[in-house]
Amino acid sequence: MKQITKITAQRRSGRFNVFVDDEYAFAVSTNVLGEFMLAKGKELTEAQIMVIKQAEQNAKAQEQALSYLSYQPRSIKEIRQYMAKQEVDAETTEVVVKRLIELGYLDDDNFAKLFINNALTVGTDGPRQIMNKLRQKGLTGDQIALHLDEVDPADFIATGLKIVQPMTRQFGRLSQRELLQKMRQKLMQHGFTSELIQPILDAIDLGDDEELQNDALLTQGIKAYKKFKKYSGYEYTRRMKQYLFQHGFSSGEIDRFLNGEIISLEELEEY
Q1: Model confidence over 59-87: pLDDT tens digits?
Q2: pTM of the predicted protein model
Q3: Where in the cell is it found (predicted)?
Q4: Domain residues of the chain, as ranges?
């Protein structure tokens, strides 16, 4: 049997050095000191000392995890990854994870709810993007779907509108059709489903502004002319029509441009 011969406080608050048989043996926190009722004169076996050291290791790792959690909510996977970076062994990590779950500090279901609510507040992600991010944080598809299903579609529509509303300023440079297509692509990139995209686009009020549509036709028509004026006859007409059609203009609008109704052919030649 070994005997504790001295316990001294470290400069760091709540930490103590334990001496066994007049030699430094290990350091412990206040909690571990109290848990094992360590005091001068207490006798310990080698096995007991190992248990105390492991308890201290667990306590230290738990403090690290709690500090990491203090900044923002984390998933179980994020805690495991953090502990690995701190070079905490897997066995200790699992003890800490289990304890934090018991204490309510780790709860992936609650984490998913908070993550989704925050995503809706920030307003940059659709449901697919949110699902991908939560998968990366270790949640299962079923867990994520359960909480996404609880979101009112109107909340995602509001988020989508926030994303594409600034793009309405491009009407007049782009045709209405091309602008809506770019909005659709933008929403897809942000993880919105087709079931949500259409209501979002329906809620966008571009109006039926003929003047802005004509401005877009003028802008794109001049671009096309500069690009294809080296051609003549059928080839010029074919390329102009193809370009303008790809940019969302109807055949009637294209004919109006080619006939000089948007800009006179004489003025166009100045470009």
Answers
A1: 999 999 999 999 999 999 999 999 999 99
A2: 0.75
A3: Cytoplasm
A4: 2-103, 109-203, 210-268
CATH number belonging to domain 2-103: 1.10.10.10
Average pLDDT, the chain: 92
**Side-chain-facing half-sphere of 231: CA atoms under 13 Å:** 13
Q: Which of 233, 237, 156 has its CA nearest to residue 200?
A: 156
Q: Quick: pLDDT tens for 19-40.
A: 999 889 888 988 888 888 988 9
Cβ partners under 8 Å of residue 160, min gap 6: 126, 187, 190, 192, 196, 197, 200
Residues contacting residue 157 through CB under 8 Å, at least 6 positions apart? 196, 199, 200, 203
- Lowest mean pLDDT: which of 22-36, 65-79, 128-142, 180-194? 22-36
